[in-house]
TrEMBL record:
Lineage: Eukaryota, Metazoa, Spiralia, Lophotrochozoa, Mollusca
Keyword annotations: Oxidoreductase
Pfam family, one: Aldo_ket_red
Protein name: NADP-dependent oxidoreductase domain-containing protein
Organism of provenance: Sinanodonta woodiana
Protein origin, superkingdom: Eukaryota
Family affiliation: Belongs to the aldo/keto reductase family. Aldo/keto reductase 2 subfamily.
All copies of domain NADP-dependent oxidoreductase, residue ranges: 22-340
Length: 370
């Protein structure tokens, strides 16, 4: 992929902001020894800037980071890069919630104090005077959500941030935030960043239904489930610790997280290998890679605004960006992939949606058709 006009753009939720449908996630920017950020897939500043340059050449305009990514180094790398580019051409998203200084009891959460302090620190590291999308990285049981949302609203009104979004929340939390902002005349959230892939579909039951009803754009993170859906791993083989984060984690699977799952969960999982086989057949039919097909499946979900990818090399970036435009999976292929790893059947969501089938869909009502 070489032409910059082959990247598609979507509105981010019901805001007027347009973003490329492939967002570059930057959790891999920066190296920090003795932490999650020390593995071989992390990139130093020079290589990170090369990836950013190529991403923009390919038409990308949407960067996602967080203050805790490599303890601020990811934001710093982006900030240094932004100095060489037109700031108004790039949509920058970052996050707040987790502590940056574990010795400080107030360094964490979604209190007004912590958010205000954190946004100033992120602005400094990013070397910009505004953040396009400021996201709550996770729910905070320690702070009334009313305090959090009023703080975000104040930051929008004073121009520190343009919009705010949410991440890693469940259905009742998302609806509570939407309703509080709506009925108090506050700026609403425009996005939900949630783990979503062919291997993680739980949010389809409730959170994404709310997003459809309320005009919130979904930003899937870990769309390839930490590399599991790339097709590069082989059954009966142990992942190379120098070639993937999963291989790195495999040395000590107690360090496994959602973005880098334990290989033991999949190495002998027949359902997983069946999905890889199906992905491989569809990929061969289209002349694409398995990763491209897995990304394309997400891009064709109507609730998705932009898919967040990671890239540790230019080749990987170009391969993933090729999912953006110029081809599509058929309805049959979409259904085949969905059936290969269906969303987990849960009560009460399954019966709720079963009794609201096609005969109960009213185009004049914002009911959900699934």
């Amino acid at each position: 992929m070489t032409d910059i006009d082959t990247t598609n753009y979507n509105f981010l939720g019901k805001s007027g902001l347009k973003v490329s449908n492939i967002c570059l996630g930057t959790i891999t920017f920066g190296v920090l020894k003795g932490t999650f950020y020390e593995c071989s897939t992390q990139t130093e500043e020079e290589k990170s800037h090369q990836i950013l340059d190529r991403y923009v050449e390919l038409g990308g305009n949407f960067l996602d980071t967080a203050n805790v990514y490599c303890r601020g180094k990811s934001e710093e790398i982006i900030g240094n890069w932004l100095q060489k580019h037109k700031r108004n051409r790039i949509v920058v998203a970052t996050k707040v919630r987790f502590p940056m200084d574990t010795s400080d009891v107030n360094s964490g959460g979604l209190s007004r104090r912590h958010i205000v302090q954190s946004v100033e620190e992120s602005l400094c590291r990013l070397r910009t005077n505004y953040i396009d999308l400021y996201q709550a990285h996770a729910w905070d049981n320690g702070t009334p959500i009313e305090e959090t949302i009023r703080t975000f609203d104040d930051l929008v009104r004073c121009g520190k941030i343009c919009y705010y979004g949410l991440s890693n929340v469940c259905g009742w939390q998302l609806q509570k935030i939407v309703d509080f902002s709506k009925y108090n005349g506050l700026n609403p959230p425009i996005s939900l960043q949630q783990q979503y892939s062919l291997m993680c579909r739980q949010s389809e039951w409730e959170e994404f239904m709310i997003c459809k009803n309320e005009g919130i754009g979904v930003l899937p993170w870990s769309p390839l489930k930490g590399g599991i859906l790339t097709g590069k791993f082989k059954r009966g083989e142990t992942p190379d610790k120098t070639q993937s984060r999963i291989g790195f984690i495999h040395q000590d699977e107690k360090r496994a997280i959602e973005a880098a799952p334990a290989w033991s969960e999949y190495s002998d999982n027949d359902a997983y290998w069946n999905l890889i086989d199906i992905l491989g057949k569809i990929a061969a039919k289209h002349g694409k890679s398995i990763a491209q097909v897995a990304l394309r499946w997400l891009l064709q979900q109507d609730v998705v605004a932009s898919v967040i990818i990671g890239a540790t090399s230019l080749k990987q970036l170009e391969d993933n960006m090729s999912a953006s435009a110029g081809w599509e999976l058929s309805t049959e292929e979409m259904n085949t992939l969905g059936a290969a790893n269906p969303r987990i059947s849960c009560y009460p969501w399954e019966p709720i949606w079963k009794v609201n089938g096609p005969d109960r869909f009213n185009k004049f009502n914002q009911s959900i058709k699934i």
